[in-house]
Amino acid sequence: MRTTFFALAIVGFSVFAAGDSSASDKGADTLRRLEAEFMQSAIEHGSTGYMSYYADDAVELPNGAVILQGKEAIGKTMGFLDNKDNRLTWTPVGADISASGDLGYTYGTYEFHSKDKDGKSVVSRGKYTSIWKKQKDGTWKVVLDMGNADPELK
Amino acid sequence: MRTTFFALAIVGFSVFAAGDSSASDKGADTLRRLEAEFMQSAIEHGSTGYMSYYADDAVELPNGAVILQGKEAIGKTMGFLDNKDNRLTWTPVGADISASGDLGYTYGTYEFHSKDKDGKSVVSRGKYTSIWKKQKDGTWKVVLDMGNADPELK
After folding, report:
1. Model-level pTM?
2. How many domains does chain B fold into?
3. To the nearest whole angstrom, how far is the Cα of B65 from the nearest Cα of chain A?
4. Does B153 or A34 have the greater pLDDT score?
């Protein structure tokens, strides 16, 4: 009986502690789930799968290159995802969403596996931020994506 | 008379064309204005002025370094803004805000003016994304900031 009461007390406290952040947490979970689907789509369908998650008016801020405006311009730089030697994976570290549930973001780390000119496997690591916006048709799309580098390994 | 009618027609069309994006445009203008104040604060008050625009739970994704979690950890890396030889300026290129007006972002370009070891003025240029969130006290703070490099000059 004491155990039951203690368990109920914990549940009660947890519900209380979650408070007004539960809607936001739920929205952030939506973005994490979307991001997993986005990555799977890129792994299975290369650049076409990757770009299918971008909004028409998306912006890309690539490291060491100029800002790319629009899905069409961004798509032209993503052909490397169609090379079977290349594999881009990423892991969200954090996510948040607006109260209205129409704008949110994720950030995290990525790994890019490829092969050097001698055919040896190489991996580069970095970080990313993706901003997601709900479109007029109800789907979520990436409206901004940016990446940069991890510290160089000594 | 024809000229007047034509002018009125243009005004009418402009109002119509603005449609439901006007609230969003107004919110994005708020972020652009905030960003100008943010920059001025950094120029006038160094790292203290810069960090006064960060939320306590902010995240920094610096190029070539690991993710920094929290205003305190980020603040420890911003001391370079207190050196009078250093000057960081930035210019937003785009901005957007959620329908609920509590989450938004800006992105653009930055210039970092400093001096090399011989005292010669040097400038490095890059891009940034800043995500802003309205806090419980009604103020807007940066919750995520990320930068990366422009193309290297040949």
Report:
1. 0.85
2. 1
3. 5
4. A34
